[in-house]
Structures are given as C-alpha cells and as structure tokens.
Amino acid sequence: MATYEECIEQAAVALGFGYEQKLKAGYGHYGDYTVLIAGQIRKGEEPRISVNFCASINNNPIPFYTYLEDDDYDYPDFPKRVRCSSNGFRVVLTTENTGTKEEVADKLVEMVRQGAAILRDRDAENCDDQGVVAHTELYALKGAFSFLSWEKADNYYKQFNRGVFTAKIKERYIPGLIGGLIGAIPGAIAILALGRLEVLSLLGGVICGVTITIGYHTAARKLSVKGGLICIAIAAVAAYLAFRVDYGWTLYDRLQPSVSFLDCVLHSFKYSAGEEGMIEYFRVLVLRILTAVGAAALMTWVEVATTKENKDFHLLGD
Predict the structure, then answer these.
(1) Which long-range contacts (CB under 8 A, 24 or more apart) does 298-305 make?
(2) What is the pLDDT of residues 279-296, one digit of tens each?
(3) What is the biggest distance separating any 2 CA atoms in the chain, rounded to whole angstroms?
(4) pTM of the prediction?
(5) CATH fold of the domain at 4-159
C-alpha cells in the first residue's frame, strides 16, 4: 500500500495542481473552485485523505452530504466509501488510503471532479473561510490551511508587519558588513558626544548598537542570527574604539600640554591614575560595550522572532 503522501502527489499531478512537499498537500483550482487535498491524521487511526472545498449558497454554509441523498439529483459516478461533511463553509470529502497508489489517486481525482460538479449544479459560489464570495488561494498558517482572498491574506501580512516574506529573501553578508560599518560611524559619534557632555553616556552605546543593526539590515536586506553576530562584533569594536577616544580626550583635558592628544588615546590605560583610575577605566569600558552589544542583540532577536512567525504564514507553493 502506498503512503498517503504519494497518493496525494499523484492526484495533484493528474489534476494539474501544485504539491507542497513540506505540508504534504495538493492545491489548485478546479473550475470555479479552490481545492485542497490533504491527509487527515488522527491518533490511533489509519490516515485518511480529504478533498476540501470552500463554498456557499446565498452566503450560507452548504449541508453537502444531503445532496447525495437528494432524489432530485443523481450522482452515480460519485466514488463509493467517501464520507461527506461540512464544517462552516468548508465542504470536506474524505476517503481511506486503501488500494494501490494509482487506485487511490484516481479516486481522489474523481472526488474533486464530482464534488465540483455537485457544487456547480447547486449554484454554489467559491468563498473564503468566513463565507465571503471571492477568488481564493490556499495559505498555511502554523500548519493549518486557510482559504483566503488576496485582501484577507494582505491583512495577515500586515498583522505580521510584513509586505513580503522575509524568509524568501537571501541575506547579503558582505554588503551587510559594509552597511554595519557605515552605521557604526554615527553610533561612535553618539558615544563620543554623550560621553563628552557627561549626560546619559550609556545611551550612546544603545544608539551605536541600533545604528549598526539598521545599517546592516538595510544593506543585507535581511537580518538572521549570523547577521546579528556580525552586528554584535561590529558594535563591540565600535564601542571600544569610541570609548578609547572619549577616555583619551578626558585624560588630555587633564594632562595637557605635557602629553599629546594622540598619546592619551593610544595609552589611555597607562595614564589612568592609580588603582581607582584603572577600576573606573574598565567599569566604563565594559558598560559601553555591553550597552552597544545588548542593543544589537535585542534588535536581532526581535527581527528573527518576527521573521520566524512570518514564515509560519505563507501561500502554498511560494
């Protein structure tokens, strides 16, 4: 006996439908109707295969199973041993996965054809899951299938704060690295400026991490965990260098004209007075680096988490 996935795939090919390997589902349009062919897996039971439509009559759900018992309509070609049920606006036809792959696939094809014929004879209209009559496509949302119009799908995109699927965009690491280095310039300036003003000096580190991440993301077009690590590395180096200049500048104000500005920057640790000076040197250095790295890490986490959520919603076949 063939697996239900093989049967679905063969039926999808015969109908000219698409087949999504990951979700093991066939999808497409037959006549005026959007059709989904998928497995039904229940614990303790043999897998069944379902053919799904979404349709309405006068904006009302369809009691599809009663049509096969209607004396006014005769469907002698409708496959035997097929369960019919309605769930909201969904019309679901299910069959057991018994027989050869060709037999089951042929049965699924006939279920699609006969199901569409019954809907057409009853003047049923294709609709989305809420019963709104429209041309629909099939989408997957966290493993569940949805019949959606383009307008409804667009609303989902907006809920995820995405106009496109970032999961489909290839990350460009080299341009991203350059963008991150460019973003480090205003970040380092912020560290210097706020450090010199001696107000909210740690905010400079946050700004540095943010500008680096924005610069990387803009140039790379996508921000993954690897990209985030690049941003964190740039943020740590940028915060360190900006701190050295800022601290050296402070020393220069105190020690000039006996030492040069460049000497204070390059040998700032040497000119830190005593043990307390060294402790203060490392305390400020660590805080500046941590704030910059923390900001870059937080922005990366938010972006990766949002992108992961966004990947769970997609158009079948996209």
Answers:
(1) 298/209, 299/209, 299/210, 299/213, 299/214, 299/223, 299/228, 299/231, 300/213, 300/223, 300/225, 300/227, 300/228, 300/231, 300/232, 301/228, 303/217, 303/223, 303/228, 304/223, 304/224, 304/225, 304/228
(2) 777 787 888 889 999 999
(3) 108
(4) 0.55
(5) Yope Regulator; Chain: A, (3.30.1460)
